[in-house]
## 1
Amino acid sequence: MTGQERSEEKSECVSLSPIRDAVPAQPKCERVSVFGTGDLGRSLGLRLLQAGYGVVFGSRRPHSISHLPHGAQVLGHAAAAQSAHLFFIAVQREHYDFLVPLAKQLKGKVLVDVSNNLRKNQYPEANAEYLQSLVPGAEVVKGFNTLSAWSLQNGPSDANRQVYICGEGVEAKQAVMAVATKLGFSALDRGSLSVARELEDFPLQLFPQWRLPLHIAIGLSAAFFFYLLIRDIIYAYVTQGKDISFRIMVSLANKVCPIVSLIMLSLCYLPGVLASFLQLYRGTKYRSDLCVCECVCIHVYNTMYMCVSTLHDQKYIRENRTTEFDTTTAWRGDSYLSLGILGFGLYILLGITSLPSVSNVLSWREFSFIQSKLGHLTLLLCTAHTYLYGWNRFLSSSTYRWYTPPGYMLCLVIPSVVLLLKLLLITPYTHTQNNTLVMMTALSSRHELLFLCYCTLRGWLPFNHRLPCFWDQKPTTFN
Ligand code: NAP
């Protein structure tokens, strides 16, 4: 650095730490520079300072910048370009041309491109590649763009711990990964700079892994909704002239949700059992994100069920209707409820353990026990619950309106096939050490356990006070 440049740095330098001059000697710390004093630049600077780095901001207006993290220095761009070896470019891509005059100073240095775009394919090339073309002598590394300013300020959470890195220079990438690790993130090297566009698209994606499960859930819901609409509502209107279209809002939805959730649960395990038959002596592995969608369906079902039950009770009470007590029917009713509640509880457990924040803390064995063993048990309980719902109606011809089976019968097909195949697989003849597992991922939530307790309690509470009233035939007057 020439004497002139040094004096330029001195004149441009603004200390944001009033006590700095009072401290006789500061321990030497690695310096990192951040170009741009906007939201991300400031959050990054704060985090770097907290991790023990010396931070130098490069700004267009070094003398008029306020609210920067305590302890950071702010310089003009030219001076800042000489202050460190590693630079975060926290400036929008449209303004990258300010770096062109600094190309000489930045030669051989590491530039971390943190930029994102507003939409996919906004520019012909990735921002990091554009940056590299502007400053060809520098080592451009793409990274940190998947973190928000907010998450940087608040520190890494379980859900937001990953930092993706890509670039050409191995040493440059290692330097950036070392910084990421020191900030508390886990860095993942995604390869060369040609991957930058993919990394820049990450923040634009909305639940990418949920797309297929959502499409399946919506498709199944729509299909069953129209099927049941014809069988239940239109059938009643055509054959009896009865308008029961109000049932669309609660009763019909209450039928669609459990049907969809049971089919989706069985779809989680269907590929596994099929693969096990196809590859009895080979391991197989697949992913599915269906579980969270199923949990939503079953939760809606649970809520709807309580509404329908309450309406049903009120109707009985209003009409002062009583039915003769029958032990078999009581057994069937209690078993139906009990299996449903148990299945529902396990269902929620499956959903929760498929969340990354929870599954990350489970060992592989624990995870596979819950997702595989308890998963099949859940499927068994829910299927049995549905069979009990059908009870003796399977053989009654009046059940088949317009020669069509009711929805709950249709939804039993796939689960029954899956359970049958699973039963065959666990027999000594076909049992094998295959490692078929369902891996489920979804969005993170901090309220999973509360949700579990809430849902389980919701499952039990309404029945505790309703059932004695039904089975004991206590007369109640409508109020
Ligand atoms: P911002 O708040 O608008 O700040 C941008 C900074 O760029 C300004 O404060 C300014 O700093 C500098 N700048 C503006 N015009 C300039 C010019 N013509 N020449 C040189 N420097 C100029 O933006 P931000 O939210 O911090 O985002 C910065 C970058 O980080 C963007 O590329 C964005 O995509 C990326 N990013 C942001 C977030 C986030 O949560 N905000 C998350 C991930 C990635 P000076 O006034 O000090 O020069």
## 2
Amino acid sequence: MNTFEDFKIKKQLQNAIADLGFEKPTPIQTESYSTILGGSDFVGIAQTGTGKTIAYLLPILQDLKFSDQPHPRVLILAPTRELVIQIVEQIEKLTTYISLRVLGVYGGTNNINTQKKAIAEGLDIIVGTPRRLYDLALSNVLRLKSIKKLVIDEVDIMLDFGYKTQLNNIFDHLPEKRQNILFSATMTTYVDELIDDFLVNPIKKTISISGTPLTNISQESYAVPNFYTKANLLNHLLGDKEKYSKVLIFVATKTNADRLLETLNFESETSVIHSSKEQNHRSKSIEMFENGTSRILIATDVIARGIDIEKITTVISFDTPFYPENYIHRIGRTGRAEQSGKAILLYSEKETALKESIESLMNYSIPFNELPEEVQVSNQLTPEEKDKPIDPDEMYHKKPVTEAGASFHEKSAKNSKEKVERKSYQTLLKERYKKPIRRGDKIQNMKKKKK
Ligand code: AMP
């Protein structure tokens, strides 16, 4: 389908789209339209900028018949006030020629009593942040039993911000029979769990926009046994301040982000962002990295995706991402605007399978580097690593091939030479999203269990 006419949407929507000046649907719009319209539960993996909002709004608006019933039939949840406002704006633009009642609710400046009054006047669609929405549901002014469709936008951010309880509370107020539509930019363990718990046979579509041809990015990898050896390697590499003048380092968890900041030798040149930091702190960190005050920015996947910073020389995956798409998103931060960029992946033995999934997805073996001699292999383990210890000697002093196959080191070297098994992207996604291959490897899971 290459035009909006192919969607066979109603005239009023066609006209609104024409007014907006959209010529053809974006890939996520093409992928989602008929599935969402068909009524299946849906998961869209797409970043901001892909046209994801219109992707779920179009089929919802196509399906929504005029009604003067007082209670809303569509609930859209978003993590931030800004996103709520944007979504409401897009709905208003799309419904220029349709009679439809929509309201955006969020905390802070938005007065709850004004919101209650607006709700009492009757609504078709309500868009809100979870906490405020739940407060309104508790007040009995907002009745959620007539909701037919639930959309959760930017669900990765929502869960990273710790809104899981609010979501569960809201789910309790919703009718069981409803269509669930989830959109997320990144896949995370939390998103996976939410899908498992609340969706019924969802159809998943992934749209990746790195926007950067991977040919601009030179990739390399190091097999490194543990956190502290990885930190030693970074201290060695990042000593070259000219070569590494603007470095974005991705870590899997907030704990690793803070721990890495303490361990690196460059504390005064390093900023950290993750969801437990205050918004002010995050903005300041990003600004310092952007204007060059900080040379190094340490970030988690979810929180980093909102930032758009030019001229990043190197993207370092300190932890190998569990979901291979996240690696593509990560490295797409460098090599922009025709500039060349560098991407370095550090992987421990436990992370080897994850690295191989990334290579299958790209159909490319990431060139392998030997650990420089100057880098000390540490025996110190983090509390998380102690849960499942790895013996560094096993990796670096070649041992006889074990039952499981070649040793980590040998396998890595071999892998860099051999062509990776070709699998279709869809097959890979199916394998990946069906069930985690080794649930214990999911770092967030490990962290949660420990609590
Ligand atoms: P989103 O990914 O939903 O944040 O949308 C990003 C921007 O793309 C918004 O400003 C939309 O108005 C715009 N947009 C959405 N769909 C299309 C389309 N089919 N053609 C051109 N622009 C679009």
